[in-house]
Please model this.
Amino acid sequence: MTEGRVSVARQTQRGAQVPALPPKSTVLLIEDSPAESRLYSAMVSSESFSVVCADRLASGLDRLSKGDIDLILLDLTLPDRQGVDTFAAIHERAPELPIILLTGHDDGELATEALKSGAEDYLVKGKIDAISLHRSLHYALERKRAAQSQQRKKLKEAHLELAAIVDSSYDAVIGMRVDGTIRSWNKAATSIFGYTKAEMTGSSLLRLVLKEQVLEMEAALEQVKKRKKAELRDTIGVRKDGTKVHISIALSPILDAESAIIGASAVVRDITDRVSLELQRQDVISTLTHDVRSTILSQKRIADLLAANAITNPEELQQLFLLLSSSTDSVLSKVSNLVNVCKYSVRSKQDFERIDLSMIADQCVRERVDAMKQKGITCKTRYSQESKCIVGDPNAMKAAIDNILENAIKFTPSGGKIEVAIENGNPGVEIRITDTGIGISREGRENLFERFWQGDAGRSESGGTGFGLYLCSQIIQGHGGTISCLSKPNGGTTMTMRVPMASDES
Model:
């Protein structure tokens, strides 16, 4: 409806108030014939409609640019434009307005073509009366209102859906003016920083970073003002309670339909766990590298003694060769762990994929068949018929299962048994590897997943580094799962990994 009009309740002669009339709709009549223009204007003008006239396409377009038009009555044959091109020019300028065509007797095909392009209706000159004209105008107006209502409904639904997506996002999503003044704030932002939406609305984004990083943030906002994206991959945020949090921030400009900047968005991710894991990873690499170097130096000293023929006693020589062999096994184990740390660090959850754990377990068993045959160990696999799929990193999960299977083989005496079972737990998927080996003491179980802990005497003498099960625990935790051990000395061991099951949509 035309904006700016105010309906005023009318008064009867006795002073009684009657309901106010709805505001009139303004019809733009574009007709070059003065006589027909007067005729149609008289027919249209009523309590429902008012009329403004134009006698050329150019003047009609000029009047449209001033606004306050609700419908258009358009003659297809004008001095400055004829045929469907006349409709196309008007429709391009005002695609949201209903257009009713006024045609001559011979313009039926043109009118039909225009209807296919978006015209609401057409009326044949000479056959138009006030009733048919008003009916056409009312129908066109009601269709416009219905379309606008439907559009508003769809926009509202889309807005609600988008708001729900933003509010349920794992990352903080912050809406701002281009100067960094915060206008919207989702639940994840509250979770990361501790501030409520009410506390942060109207505040600056700079409030969320350390003073030392304000200049960096201001430079990023300047990039956004230039319609460019900016990213701070690893910066320090400040929570409401003053504690620090490692975050990454991605800033983007928000543009309107004309590509003008109307605001900015910031997507903030808490990367504290990732940074912590990376620090642990670097620490592990440093420790293992130092151990490998120390072992190799010991081997070099033994090799130097042998090369110099400094040892001639056969028993002492045999001891040196055994020590050299043992230290070589130790180096190989440590190097293997170094490779695992670098190769099997769990990927970001955004990069996880759907994997079948039974296929991975089968692969691990096949690769260990020779080692089990050498010890006369029988291995049984038992998988449930239900889904055994998770969403995760296949390489990392293979490393975890293989490490536990390797331990089971290592600590199970000749002629023993191993079972690999996978079934749906409550909740998630359970991978259980059971052996009839030497078992683990209570103290050993309590420290089993500690880094570099080598545990009971029988296990520490195996030449391991005490790192494998720590790596397993990190992998399973990285998948949102848990790992546990059930064992007793000389009573076998059951290692259980529980990982969330993949949903049907995954």
Q: What stands out?
A: Residues 130-167 form the longest helix (38 residues).
